[in-house]
Write a structure and sequence with these properties.
By secondary structure, this protein is of the alpha/beta class. Helix content is 46%, strand content 15%. It has 3 domains: 216 residues, HUPs (Rossmann fold); 101 residues, Orthogonal Bundle (Tyrosyl-Transfer RNA Synthetase), CATH 1.10.240; 75 residues, Structural Genomics Hypothetical 15.5 Kd Protein In mrcA-pckA Intergenic Region, Chain A (Roll). The strands form 4 sheets. Strands 3-2-1-4-5 form a 5-stranded parallel sheet, sandwiched between helices. Strands 8-14-13-10-11 form a 5-stranded mixed sheet. Strands 6-7 form a two-stranded antiparallel ribbon. Helix 17 packs across helix 18. The structure holds adenosine-5'-triphosphate. It is found in: Cytoplasm.
Amino acid sequence: MFPPVSEQIALLTRGAVDLHVKAELEARLEESRKTGKPLRVKAGFDPTRPDLHLGHAVLLSKMRQFQDLGHEAILLVGEFTAMVGDPTGKNDARPRLSRAEVQESAKSYTEQAFKILDRNKTIIRSNSEWLDKLTPTDIVELMAKMTVSRMLERNDFSQRFEAGRPIYQHEFLYPLLQGYDSVALGNDIELGGTDQLFNLLVGRDLMSKYGQRPQMVLTTPLLEGIDAKVENGVVVGAKMSKSADNYIGLTESPLTMFRKVMQIDDEVIFRYFELLSSLSNEAIAKLKADKAGGRDPREIKALFGKEIVTRFHDAQAALAAEEEFKKIYSADAIPDNVEEKTLTTDGPTLWIAKALSATGLVKSTGEGKRLVEQGGVEVDKVRITDGNFQLERGKKYLLRVGSKNRRFVYVVVAP
Ligand SMILES: Nc1ncnc2c1ncn2[C@@H]1O[C@H](COP(=O)(O)OP(=O)(O)OP(=O)(O)O)[C@@H](O)[C@H]1O
């Protein structure tokens, strides 16, 4: 019932960063073919915020591959652990959430996960099922299985410790509780982003210490946010996350998704192709060569934008989003619904900075003047850089600010 092991390995290891135990994975896949028992694959998400984004899609897509090969996916909702707060990558302890907040987020995000996972082949479990029931004795036993020095091996903890920043006791509990989830589930493998490696390995250790067969661990790359850049050939930037506001959410509208894709750096877009596109490596290499050969990078980004909108909405929405985007944002396009405002002036003319601030395109005349001098303003499609530029009474002008997020207003200066 399962495809040959070599085929499964080829697919599952594509794009995986750490696979600690490739030989073990081969052996367990072999075993599952013999017994007909699927591997049980765990991935945990803490419902700290109600939305999933393309970064999460990297992990969920790997999970989906396991499902497509006939294995069993366990989507572990970290209801309990979200209240503790994962210290991974954090300089400070996270704010802790209430149960009601967590339950609300959990509902929306399991639904969103089914945009990628096969609903009929997914088991959803919440770690409140077992963690709520742990007694103080159980917790002492759990804590006795890990040393403080092992915890301090973790970069974010050791850095905080050395810098004299507080590490609270409950933060040490987090990896233990996440690991205990694996003990409770008895899964064969756990998936996570590379930032989760420490937590996943704690789970592996704990399973052995509780006398179970230890889980295998497979991590997937972290997708950088839409604000990432390339420096010396390397993608640099924070990982995509809601808190950094550099994300593309799985439920965002087709136009928003498409617009955000078009905002991505011309080089960084290839990272998105590699991690999320269904194009083959050869096809992606060809796009890179096209770009080097002078192909307009916007065309390449639009290909990715359409693929993503098609995946999370549909093909028709993707075409419509591209059309709409061109209308609003392409070089000379003026959108259909530009507002018109009539402004009055006491003098013979109206100062451009005043017009910009009166229409709300900028917050103050100071900001307006600066923006003009920096070249961020067009009047009737012509860029102006004179901070004292004047508009004449009785005339109508089209003002535009911004380059990526362009905004327009028609201004009529009252006679
Ligand atoms: N940008 C990303 N790219 C790839 N994987 C990601 C990304 N962000 C989160 N993940 C992975 O998704 C899983 C669930 O992450 P989770 O929802 O707990 O978010 P998180 O990493 O704690 O984000 P945040 O710090 O914004 O709350 C983890 O395995 C994590 O590594």
